Amino acid sequence: MHTLGNHLNFEQTTLIKTQYDLKHAINDGSLFLMGNGYLGMRGTFMEAKKADYAGIIVTDTWDNADGKWEELSTVMNGLFADLKIDGRSIFERPWTDFKRTLDLTTGITTRDVTIQLDDVNVNIKEEKFASMDDHHVIGMRVSITADGPVDLALIQGIDADVWSLNGTHLKEVSFDSNDLGLYSQARLSSAQDIIAVATQCNVHEIGKQPLSITSKTHISLHPDTPYAWEQIMVVTSSHETKDPTLWVQKKLEDLAPYDSLKTASIKAWKEKWVPFDVRIKGDDTDDFALKFNTYHALIATPTHKPLPIGARGLSAQSYQGAAFWDQEIYNMPMYLYAQPDVAKNLLLYRYHTLDGAREKAKKHGYEGAFYAWISGKTGKELCPDFFFKDVLSGRPIRNHFNLWQIHISFDVGFAVLRYVKQHQDEAFMRDYGLEMLIEISRFLASRVAFIPHRDRYEIIRVQGPDEYHENVDNNAFTNYQAHYVLKETLQALDEYTPKNPAILPRDDELELWQSIDAKLYLPKVNEAGLLEQFDGYFDLESIVPAHKVTERLIDPEEYYGYPNGITVFTQCLKQADTVQLFSVHPELFDEEVQRTNYHYYEPRTLHFSSLSPTTHALVAARLGLVDEAYKHMKKALFIDLLNTNEAVSGGTFIGGMHTANNGASWAVVAEGFAGVAYDDGLVMNPHLPNAWESITLPLYINGALRTFEITHKTIERTDESSGPIAIRIQGTPHTLNSGEKITYTHSS
Ligand code: IFM
After folding, report:
1. Which atom of ligand 1 is nearest to the CA of 319?
2. Residue 680 shares a structural domain with residue 611
3. Ligand 1, from 325, 326, 402, 579: best to mutate by most atoms within 8 Å of Cβ?
4. 348 in the same domain as 218
5. Residues 446 and 369 both lie in one domain
6. What sign has the CA pseudo-torsion 65, 71, 73, 74?
7. How far, in Å, is the centroid of ligand 1 from the Cα of 385?
8. I want to staple 111 with a disulfide (CB 3.0 to 4.6 A). Which of 102, 126, 305, 566 is the partner?
9. CA of 559 to the centre of ligand 1 (A)
10. Atom 7 in ligand 1: residue holding the nearest Cα
11. For residue 110, is it within any domain?
């Protein structure tokens, strides 16, 4: 067994914890999450309730219960079970020999615990999984044994007393039962949507409670009569079927036995892992931590329908279960290289939310598509105007994330272009992509300002990814990203004919776009080789290292950013926008410029965004700054495992899995250390950390999955598929057939 820290260990592909403390329940519930992109069942135990942060979060259930936060709902828990001894829950008794596990390859979690009674010990073994084969199903098997006689009351049922972050979503909860199982239906509080849950378990006696339906079984446990039960829950909503209750009833009728469901899920997981199964040789901990992050990225990603990846996936309702730019910039690369169908599905989600983006643009006086900063099902803006508080005055702060982080639209356009170029999906471009690009360019054209005395277009009053500096002009990341999308859109208009010609820009629009393409201000590198993050950034107070700025806090809970937080009039950054720019557009600046800027901005960066470590690791690795890259990669790999980031910011709960970081960890290995890129063909410029011997990397290329074994000196193709692969290594073109190996030398 290997130690990770925080009482966490691992053995091969299994995460293990041998200590239980309610204080860690929020975090543990996320770490041991089970899921399948449709639902996430928090890693809590059978007897857990609201106070233990029990929750099953189902995608496509957005609802606003408190009038402020529209978020995904937690649904009724059909896997509730408790064992009472003399009327007291096992939760209230001393536990010994506690061990919980999560097998990343099968998604199965277990708990093994002994409950100490006066003269008897009762051992409980609990096993659970969210089916990867049938997304509506979660199964649990529990077995109990005792070393002496004891009478137990087993209570099983559907519990609506679940954790919900911002208000109670489940209204008009009703319960029912028949010979097959227990049923519950609820209406979401603001939406008219219906949630239905059914549970199959051993029903002996039915007793109703206001918030749950339970069945009670008396068990006389003896050392030679172990007892076990299986409980299987199914769930759906009115987004999927007209009559959810009927649907779950039917589902119970046809339900396969527990073992068959489990076998099918294990098989589906095995297939799921094939394209994502990156191996790191040389450091077992890094290898495990990468797998852990990939597991969480996978279970956060809906694949059954075009729906968004939430910033905390399906691990908690924080960040509203909604998509940010994280989806296109941090989660997308893994899918672009390993399973492009999933990347396409995510882009289709953005296509289906075009109307929401159009509405947002119109509302604020612009044209085209201004994508929501926080985007749920329809793409309407979910980001409230007020969410941080000035802790010194108690007054709310108006942050402008929803209005000024306009880079979101260009990030979506950038992802469309990446996908189409890398996978030559012309049909996608004709049917969907072009329309998105046109609407994004329209938005840009209505958002830029022409400054006559400088004879150029500028993008003023924005907020870059570095959220501590709001209301800035000509943010380098935003301007370059906008320009790239516009330039490529103009080119795409020459190359592709859209399915629907009515979407094409008018001639006067085209003329304006060409003028913006020619005259959009793109900040240039100064004499010192530096690119200014935004106009006037270099005039701000320089504090190095950035952490020194925290000495100025009056209250530890103070918000650091706009309008007058401690970083605002300084060069201290939440994350560095120029480094961010290099991460998506390495082709725009030579390596020396990137290195100079990296060394300037990194010491000024607080890395208080969970997105920051992977961005820095990726850029540093590409630049051959291997130790620096590895330092940031280590941080990224352990953000969740070691619970390093704050769960509350400015009074708002932001805990749960850091899904962008989970997905981007894969990207750092592939695009950073293995140096993979797509530039009219596959490119590889590896820079492996000293601690690693090799990376085994499956990549989806030319319509099939190929595998590469990359060491400090060689790249070998290890898959058995036929046909050569063209690959540029350190600038030299090669072709690699299965079993062939190339020796390379470092360019830097
Ligand atoms: O999208 C990010 C943002 O850049 C920083 N705050 C958290 C968001 C969700 O991860």
Report:
1. 9
2. no
3. 326
4. no
5. yes
6. negative
7. 16
8. 126
9. 15
10. 609
11. yes
Q: Does 141 fall in a domain? A: yes
DSSP label of 283: -
Instruction: Give domain status of residue 282, yes or no.
Output: no
- 218 forms beta bridges with 153
- Residue 459 corresponds to which tokens in the numbers above? 């993008």
Closest atom, ligand 1, to C-alpha of 405: 4
Same domain membership, residue 723 and residue 631: no
**One domain, residues 237 and 352:** no
Atom 10, ligand 1: residue with shortest CA distance: 311
In this structure, which residue's CA is closest to atom 4 in ligand 1? 465
Residue 467 bears catalytic tag: yes
**Listed residues 214, 243, 272: the one ending a domain:** 243
Predicted pLDDT of residue 206: 32
Convert 637-653 to b/e letters by CB count within 10 Å (16 or more is b): bbbbbebebeeebbeeb
Q: Is the pLDDT of residue 35 over 70?
A: yes
Identify the CATH number of the domain in which residue 720 sits. Answer: 2.60.420.10
Residue 265 lies in a domain: no
Local structure of 143: helix, strand or coil = strand
Please, how many CA atoms are within 13 Å of residue 325, restricted to the half-sphere of its CB? 25
Whole-model pTM?
Answer: 0.97
- Burial of 120 per CB tally in 10 Å (0-12, 13-18, 19+): middle
The whole-number pLDDT of residue 393 equals 93
CATH number at residue 85: 2.70.98.40
C-alpha 326 – ligand 1 centre gap (Å): 7
Average pLDDT over residues 584-610: 97
Test site for ligand 1: of 318, 401, 574, 610, most ligand atoms within 8 A of the Cβ: 610
Ligand 1 atom closest to Cα of 324?
1
Burial class for 20, CB neighbours closer than 10 Å (0-12, 13-18, 19+): middle
Atom number in ligand 1 closest to CA 575: 4
Q: What residues line ligand 1, using a CB cutoff of 6 Å?
A: 311, 319, 324-326, 465, 467, 609, 611, 660
- Residue of 127, 230, 381, 467 marked catalytic: 467
Whether residue 695 sits in one domain with residue 658: no
Q: How many domains does the chain have?
A: 3
73 & 166 share domain:
yes
Closest residue (by CA) to atom 6 of ligand 1? 609
Same domain, yes or no: 457 and 346: yes
Give the pLDDT of residue 86: 81
Show the tokens assigned to 251: 């589902």
Extract the runs of DSSP E, i.e. beta strands, from 528-628.
none
Mean pLDDT, all residues of the chain: 94
Total count of residues recorded for the chain:
748
To test the pocket of ligand 1, the residue of 611, 615, 648, 654 to mutate (highest count of ligand atoms within 8 Å of its CB) is: 611
- Ligand 1 center from residue 354 Cα (angstroms): 21
Q: Residues 702-744: pLDDT tens digits?
A: 889 999 999 999 999 999 988 999 999 999 999 999 999 999 9
Q: Which domain holds residue 143?
A: 2-243
> Ligand 1 center to residue 40 CA distance, Å?
21
Domain boundary among 635, 666, 697: 666
Tens digit of each residue's pLDDT (9 = 90 or more) over 118-148: 889 999 999 999 999 999 999 999 999 999 9
Which residues fall within 8 angstroms of residue 495, CB to CB, at 6 or more apart?
Answer: none
The closest-lying atom of ligand 1 relative to the alpha carbon of residue 465 is 4
Contact by Cβ (8 Å): 366, 462: no
Q: How far is the CA of 534 from the centre of ligand 1 (A)?
A: 19
HEC readout, 367-378: CCCCCCCCECCC
What CATH number should be reported for the domain holding residue 533?
1.50.10.10
Is 90 exceeded by the pLDDT of residue 686? yes
Nearest by Cα to 612 from 586, 656, 644, 570: 644
